[in-house]
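Friendly challenge for the regulars: who can give me the structure tokens for this chain first? No prize, just bragging rights.
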Amino acid sequence: GDALLEGYPQIHAVGRAAGPKQQPRLIDLTWGSEDAPKVTLVGKGVCFDTGGLDIKPAAAMLTMKKDMGGAAHVLGLAAMVMDAQLPVRLRVLVPAVENAISGDAFRPGDVLVARNGKTTEIGNTDAEGRLVLADALVEACSEAPDLLVDCATLTGAGRVALGTDVPCLFANDEGVAVADVLVAESAKEQDQVWRLPLWQGYREEINGKVADLKNIGNGPYGGAITAALYLAEFVEPAAEGGAAPPWLHLDMMAFNTGSKPGRPEGGEAMGMRALFRLLEARFGK
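First reply, four minutes later:
Bragging rights claimed.
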């Protein structure tokens, strides 16, 4: 609710238009020994997405109960880690909101201030997932985790690039080696993810005119990359002069659009088994 105004203003801005029973929350869960390697998982928890004032077409809204798929993935992965008793200090952050429409909804043209002070010009209220993830990523970095992973049903552009079954994977410079391991593990598990470039050549696409950043690019191309570049602005060192944590970003469908043997239409884990194998290989006993 309004308590988020102090430290998590973008989560509040996106979720404030929902009714009193659906007020925004930041769910923060921890498990494991405090002296173990720190693994932090962040999941987009948009419990329903109308698109906000830039409202979605009716057909596009039909499946938007799935927009919490990233949150479902990190909670599922956390359950696997705990069941396996991996020796890690696990933290799970879920910004949980409903992107609703009301007189109090955030608007195109608004300028939002994130947890780290960076400002964002709103070009489209339907690019809301990256806004709530930004605040959560800043908080995640404050503890300097040994690995930071976020999962999100973030862009349609990612589905155009790789289809509905293969999540897009992005990594910062510190996370490139880890990303290579994840791609290899995903092939072994038949739980494929595929890496796309976090290409700085598109960074100018998200420069704001009246703010530091925009929440959408200038045109219709490279949308998965510009969304990842936006998130990268909030993955930062915990202390001045330090390095950012190794960061992996998975942009996924999290939903089967049709039924196949063993994979009915509806919510689907994509990349979760591969991520667990990565954690097992990197931090296992």
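The chain has a mean pLDDT of 97. The CA atoms of residues 7 and 115 lie 6 Å apart. Your move, everyone else.
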